[in-house]
Amino acid sequence: MPLFKTISVNSQTTVKIWKIEESYEALLQPLTLKPESLNRVLGMKSELHQRGFLSVRHLLREFGYTDQDLYYDTNGKPHLKDGKHISITHSFTFSGVIISDKEVGIDIEKQRDKIAVIAHKFVDFEFNYIQPTDDDYINRLTVIWGIKESLYKLFATPGMLFKTHFLVIPFMLKDGNTIAWIDYNHKKYRYQTAFLEFEGFTCAYVVP
Questions:
Q1: Are 194 and 205 in contact (CB under 8 A)?
Q2: Is 97 exposed, middle or buried (0-12, 13-18, 19+ CB in 10 A)?
Q3: Domain 4'-phosphopantetheinyl transferase spans what residues (predicted)?
Q4: Rounded CA gap, 99 and 15, in Å?
């Protein structure tokens, strides 16, 4: 069972990361899926997405939940029936789940040079402290994207823009954490964020 990492963020919040090494069949076999979940996974054209979807259900089991405990609202945000807050992510060969008593968000991204091509679409203030000539430019861009994606998942409000409404306070990779803000509809919200790198991937997560 390749549970890759467990992070105890605080007494109320835990992150679990799965390294997806099993075949689709091996992941599916021990699970009992709701009909809508089974239809969803069978309808996926990519086996990579299927394995990501199923690995998230294995992470739920690590937390003591089943697929039946999970549902999604009209904005596509996941919820647990017991009222705990959950956020889900998967990217290529890794998936992650964060569960907390508070609203949370998580994202895993593969570190790829092509993120620099779209940087202007999600970075504004952050260009004050990162530059394309920096040795760690791609890695820090990936952290910024991951934090903003996590904020978007947490807030789950259609119409929010990474570049306009989300701001990440200056950080260095060795810090492993920073502060982020949402500025939306004349209100400001402050969040604690953390990030880590492993095997060419970046995981970021946010909590109030």
A1: yes
A2: buried
A3: 104-184
A4: 7
Phi/psi of residue 77, nearest 5 degrees: -85, 130
**What average pLDDT values come out for the chain (208 residues) when binned by 10 residues?**
92 97 96 95 95 97 97 93 97 97 97 97 97 97 98 90 96 97 94 98 96
Q: Max CA-CA distance within the chain?
A: 50
Q: What is the pTM of this model?
A: 0.95
DSSP assignment letter at 77 = -
> What is the DSSP-derived secondary structure letter of residue 64?
T
Question: Considering only CA atoms, which of 63, 67, 54 is closest in space to residue 27?
Answer: 54
User: How much of the chain is helix, strand and coil, in % rounded to 5?
Assistant: 35, 35, 30
Residue labelled with tokens 């990474």: 162
The token pair at 39 is: 């239809």
Q: Tell me, what amino acid is at 168?
A: V
Judge contact between 94 and 196, C-beta under 8 A.
Answer: no
